[in-house]
Design goal:
The complex is a heterodimer. By secondary structure, chain A is mainly β. Chain A has strands at about 5, 10-15, 20-25, 30-35, 45-50, 55, 65-70, 75-80, 85-95, 105, 110. In chain A, the strands form two sheets. In chain A, strands 2, 4, 5, 6, 9, 10 and 11 form a seven-stranded mixed beta sheet that branches. A four-stranded antiparallel beta sheet of chain A has the order 1-3-8-7, with no helix packed on it. Chain A starts with a strand and ends with a strand. Chain B contains no helices and twelve strands. The chains are: A mainly beta, B mainly beta. Chains A and B meet through β9 and β10 of A and β6 and β11 of B.
């Protein structure tokens, strides 16, 4: 079992659907992150939660809604997505916001049709 | 804003040979961290090596070492004795020490190991 687990691994959804991505970390970390990885583009940081409070939101459209109910879990709720939102969504955690090492999950490959 | 550039979209190397991946970055800060991450087909990003900018000595981790040239803002990764398991996407990343401490990634270099 990896330290950071993401489910589902793959997701195909229509533009009118509502779905959620889940991330769980078993490392005792208190900071969690959502990244978007699109083809031929650098990883983009979407959201940062530190001690369950959102500390960073990098101009992400409102159709992406994060939730951090506790320090071990992070969700990304998806609603009315566009085809250009198709990407690999990576979750990461670290011991403290700004720690020198972040641990990543295996990502959710999202396809919007 | 900081930027990270990896100018080699793809690289290949013979097994057991040495390969160097290039990375340059742009920043006005004097203190920061630099990283190389590996993303194998499993998609999980794995930290390979880390360098603190205030340290002049180049970081090494077994077969992996960096050539950190602060004045040139260059941070290359050398992989010695390449192994088939080294095949992956490699990402260079920058992180500030103060202020916004998010990781800024380069576009990645796909490394192929030829048996």
């Amino acid at each position: 079992e990896t330290g950071v687990t993401q489910t589902p691994r793959h997701l195909v959804m229509g533009m009118t659907n509502k779905k959620s991505l889940k991330c769980e970390q078993h490392l005792g970390h208190n900071a969690m992150y959502w990244y978007k990885q699109s083809a031929k583009k650098p990883l983009e940081l979407m959201f940062v939660y530190s001690l369950e409070e959102r500390v960073e939101n990098n101009s992400v459209p409102s159709r992406f809604s994060p939730e951090c109910p506790n320090s071990s879990h992070l969700f990304l709720h998806l609603h009315t997505l566009q085809p250009e939102d198709s990407a690999l969504y990576l979750c990461a955690s670290s011991q403290g916001y700004g720690a020198t090492e972040a641990f990543f999950g295996q990502g959710t490959r999202l396809t919007v049709v | 804003a900081q930027t990270v550039t990896q100018s080699q979209p793809e690289m290949s190397v013979q097994e057991a040979e040495t390969v160097t991946l290039s990375c340059t970055y742009d920043t006005s800060e004097s203190d920061y961290y630099l990283f190389w991450y590996k993303q194998p087909p499993s998609r999980q990003m794995i930290l390979v090596i880390r360098q603190e900018a205030y340290k002049q000595q180049n970081a090494t981790e077994n077969r992996f070492s960096v050539n950190f040239q602060k004045a040139a803002k260059s941070f290359s990764l050398k992989i010695s004795d390449s192994q088939l398991g080294d095949a992956a996407m490699y990402f260079c990343a920058y992180r500030s020490i103060q202020g916004a401490q998010k990781l800024v990634f380069g576009q990645g270099t796909r490394l192929t190991i030829n048996p």
